[in-house]
Amino acid sequence: MAAFWATAPAGAQEALSQKAQTLSFAAMDAAVREGAFKRVTSILVARRGQLLHERYFDEGGAEARRNTRSVTKTVTAMLVGAAIERGRLKGVDARVMPFFADMAPFAAADPRKAAITIEDFLTMSSLLECDDDNSFSRGNEERMYLVEDWVRFTLDLPIKGFPGWATKPADAPFGRAWSYCTAGVTTLGALLERATGKPLDAFARETLFGPLGVTGERWQHAPTGFLQGGGGLELRSRDLLSLGQLLLDRGRHGHAQLLPQAWVAAMISPHAQVDDQRGNYGYLTWLPTFTIRGQKIDAAAMYGNGGNKVVIAPALDLVVVITTTNYGVPNSHALSERLLTEYILPLALDAK
């Protein structure tokens, strides 16, 4: 399905809405147009590899490249898997610091920093004092954007402390203390460029985007020149759908295995716990569980600021893309989740 998504037959779409009684995609679209979900720009739903629903609510339409912010992070995790498969990285246990030995020394020297691995950045659980959810954190991403060298910003960070009320890694589920850290993923993108010897966009085009038919993508650049793996990648909504389908199909696209099955399985398996409300976290992939009419639906998801989401539900053979410009809107993720829980997932359950 490179660059093309086959639309499901009309009968399949009608069956989906008929079984849902008062629920329908038309009702969802109307609610979006009325502003119930603020500034949603597109909604795409694919089932069993066929496009069931595709709507655009902005002037850009299908060809617009949309900035889905931290959805980029999951793409970076895919590229790590591609680099390991090609022998450019030894594995997730490879240590980060040796890739930047030419930049040493770094501030706040500590032997525990030398032990930080690629997996630590993939799971948002390195011991660096970095927390985007805490405006006081030295590693908060807004502080990173104020300086020129984003890699040095990251690797200069001190080791975080664990006061009595904080859960230490040894006491946390999966042995990892999670905190959301864009700086770590930004550095992971720079590491990929050094490991592969190619700019991130060229490596992505070679391994993922070219085979998937993704064109015209736009990456953000760090002030020192490398491409930002932590956010800001602009893609079409159908491109996002293709990336979600690739995860759902365990790395396979048509007759080609673009990512190893074992790598995709690792991406969507739990490696850290976010918290009791948001559940677990894989390799730069969220692992939410939605409850619909008492039934739990496990999912894997790519999330970005503003409630941007690419969600796969393996049990339903479903991929959903929701794009928005609700940047900075309070509870923007909850707004997008309402689209999932009030409309899309119930419709899919009724048609199961």
TrEMBL record:
UniProtKB keywords: Hydrolase
A GO MF term: hydrolase activity
Top enzyme category: hydrolase
Entry keyword Iron: no
Enzyme Commission designation: 3.-.-.-
Sequence ranges assigned to domain Beta-lactamase-related in this UniProt record: 41-328
Domain of life: Bacteria
Listed name of the protein: Serine hydrolase
Native source organism of the sequence: Sphingomonas agrestis
